[in-house]
Amino acid sequence: MIVRRGKMEEFRSLGLDPFGHRFQRTAYSTDITEHFEEMEGKSVAVTGRIMSVRGHGKVSFMEISDIKGTLQLFFKIDVLGEENFKQIKLLDIGDIIGVNGEVFRTQRGQISVRVERWEILSKSLRPLPEKFHGLTDTEIRYRQRYVDLIMNPEVKDVFIKRSKIISAIRHYLDSHGYMEVETPVLHTLAGGAAARPFITHHNTLDMEMYLRIALELHLKRLIVGGLEKVYEIGRVFRNEGIDIRHNPEFTLMELYEAFSDYEGMIELTEDLLKNVCLAVNGTTTVVCQGETIDFSHFERMTMVEAVKKYSGIDYYAYDTVAEMKKAIAEKGIDLEDNDTSTKGYLLNALFDVTVEKHLIQPTVIMDYPIEISPLAKKMDDPNFTYRFEGFVLGRELCNAFSELNDPIDQRERFERQMDLRKEGDEEANPLDEDYLTAMEYGLAPTGGIGIGIDRLVMLLTDSASIRDVLLFPTMKQRE
RNA sequence: GAGCCAUUAGCUCAGCAGGCAGAGCACCUGACUUUUAAUCAGGGUGUCCGGCGUUCGAAUCGCCGAUGGCUCACCA
Asked: Which domains does chain A have, with CATH numbers?
């Protein structure tokens, strides 16, 4: 580092700014390497970061990297002159340079640019990791993502793909008449999902505020307002554990459509996912964690059917909780720490323990127990709601329902949630009086869906950890 | 929140029957006019994660702590 600072000063003493200015590039690396026939013999201006240097006395080779790829530069004393050639010794791996020269092929056949003029655009004062092994230390990769991005081109590809996925979602929704909106991140009540919120404080108003845990209740207020087809792609925050699939802040897409229902949401989800997959991968299949996932078809099952299929327990065969529990125990199924106080909770527990992991190909599980669905519309059997979740690779990818639009029923559901809260359930939904007021003005029959964007990106980029699809994952502060 | 594992040079790692801190790449000096993990000759640049302890002596053993990874719990 001391040596690099010295070189920086030497550039200055030569009248060259080691932290230069605008550079007008005429070609990217891949424009040259992939279209050599048209480019051969042409003069180009290229720029990039020096990734390797191979000096040979009176000639020198360097590899530079730009957003699209890498390119070899060829420096020759005959072309540059003795003085100028000597100055390339001031360049280090990591420096950003701009060069002008002619496209040609070396004796070994490598497509290169014969440098006629070069300039330092930014001197790198810190050495990059070793070229062969690169950077593998996960802690540095996540904390100093910029170094990770410089050294590992496949990491860059993941984030380029993430951008394309989100862009494809927007394109699909915009072209289908959905309107993108922005709702508050700071909430006075953290509702719309079951999770513990981050708490903050507004000084001037002198009140507690919460970072949102869902987008749901504000978006549904907009449906009341007549916006009819809205969506938001936004960051939500849940004060929960961090692991391979969870980060405290993550990106959620929620969409609401008046006069639709959960059937409409299933159709939308299938079509959206198929289109996004096609747009970013060119096919409807994707290989993730060794499994080939086909987004062209979604299996459909009710939760009761799925539980019967995988656990052998038929929800309808038992009249009481006790009978059902007895049957579960006889099968030797361990429900772990799940709530088992009602048949609905038992069904959900069975689903978690016995079904979820089997849902590898895209599967829609329909008709959830009312106990775990406080914002979804009741079915004819009042123990169930018009709700579905989409599963892929044994993980939940989306959650949707026919929205509960009866304000009287909603108030009762909120009150039940408040009871749970009093019993110590920190994740129960709080009663949102303003949301009830909105509903009392009339919420059209509505279908709504939420899709976990990070999980979708994980699937489409074959990433094992959510941290691999977040540019800057949440990390503990050092020291 | 619990368990297991890891932390040594800029990077990737070795060294751990307790005995002078090591290799490759990077870097520095020199040679080399077509290399591509260039090559050749020479040079080690360090808070061995931190603290305490055991010991004549600790990178190595013990305890406490920090950070990270994985697994489990909560959750999407």
From this structure: 2-128 (2.40.50.140), 151-298+362-469 (3.30.930.10)
